[in-house]
DNA sequence: CCTCCTGCGTTGAAAATTCAACGGAAATTC
DNA sequence: GAATTTCCGTTGAATTTTCAACGCAGGAGG
């Protein structure tokens, strides 16, 4: 895949870096270009965490399966975001999750040490990159807090509505799409799939919600409601 | 409270900083010494996140209460650890949780900008501090992943046992104490308190577990089992 | 020493989730 | 284009959790 500079400027790791400096910087960081088929494992739980991933296209998910077989989706990553960076920055050094491509995906891998330690060329933007990385890891932290707020609901309906309201708020629109199929959503909310389907149907009958596949619309919401 | 240098050298933010440099560094960072009574709110959800907290004594917890009244304990902080640092480093800028002293506590507050931007004295340890901060935020990330693994269990028993096994592993001992009372543990595991008590009693009857107040002991565990 | 309050364990009934199974629709594969 | 696989929605029974309430022990405070 040819990496467009436009794509990378939208990556939060390179905030404040001018586009013309990007190619040299990528070379300096030793970025490797990768591709993953849909459903394939990009990084395996328990393996050493050394790299920072940058998702260029597709979609990847952080998934943990416990000994009882419960599958949990911790987070869904969309372009042009980082993944696995928190694990590579931490002391632990082992991945607590599988990183899986839920769609065919292109991504870069960068050895985290190349980011965290000053490069041989003493490039002037390095401190900015580290600053950006700190902010990104902190933002991931916030996302995990938000997910915990969702799963803290004591019923399927409560979890689902909390999730959907947050999505609508982030999209700033009563219509929005989600990066999950039904099973994926159930695994993200930590509920049973069939129970989730049943609750969704109920909400549709009640006129609270409308949906088709992964496109949703919240009704009776004090918010703009536009189609594109 | 007099701040002993020994205490601060155990704070991960100052890893790699020599003890004699600490007092000057604290002054440079503008650290303010604070005290909180048991049960009092140190930082309020929704207020601007600007400071990094360093807990010197006592215990603080990150607590979120949703609109339905469900109380969730996201994390319990013990000395000499940081708190609220992730929120102050993130773009969001607002606290997603209440920070509450579960015991009478002493702590320091440091304006996060003083840490993240080079100080006027251009102190040579600043980059080390930022590096440490990145690692700490990443470690918090890991802790949240671990908590999610616990709450992913589909039953009270599963959540409880996952939690206790992790505690025993971290203590490297089948005997250990936890920083929660029953209600607190229930709020951390996201289960009902009475159901938790019932499950604990059952496990005790079954000979899997023994406990008194907040002291626990896992039986039949392939692990050393010593009384201090 | 007595009273008040908090935390803990128990119980029973109501409600919700989980689990297994099935049919249909849509997408994928050959 | 036909077969196959995957995804989705539904249902009913079994299992759990939730919720409200109560008694008791221990500590705090007057």
What's the layout of helices and strands?
2 copies of one chain form a homodimer.
Chain A: H1 5-9, H2 22-29, E1 32-36, E2 41-43, E3 51-57, E4 60-65, E5 71-77, E6 82-83, H3 85-89, E7 98-101, E8 105-111, H4 112-116, H5 126-151, H6 156-171, E9 175-177, H7 182-189, H8 193-205, E10 209-212, E11 215-218
Antiparallel strand pairs in A: 1-8, 2-7, 3-6, 3-8, 4-5, 4-7, 9-11, 10-11
The structure holds a DNA duplex (30 and 30 nucleotides).
- Largest sheet, spatial ordering of strands of chain A: 1-8-3-6
Proportion of residues in β-strands of chain A: 15-25%
CATH architecture label name of the largest domain in chain A: Sandwich
CATH topology call of the largest domain in chain A? Jelly Rolls
Structural shape of chain A: globular
Give the CA-CA distance, first to last residue of chain A.
Answer: 29 Å
- What is the chains' assembly state? homodimer
DSSP strand tally of chain A: 11
CATH superfamily of the largest domain in chain A: Jelly Rolls
Specify the CATH class of the largest domain in chain A: Mainly Beta
Give me the secondary-structure category of chain A: alpha+beta
Number of helices, counting only DSSP H or I runs of 4 residues or more of chain A: 8
Series of secondary-structure elements of chain A, N-terminal to C-terminal: HHEEEEEEHEEHHHEHHEE
The profile of the biggest β sheet of chain A is: 4 strands, antiparallel
- Report the uncertain regions of chain A: none
- What's the alpha carbon Rg of chain A, rounded to whole Å? 19 Å
Of all chain pairs, the largest interface belongs to: A-B, 42 and 42 residues
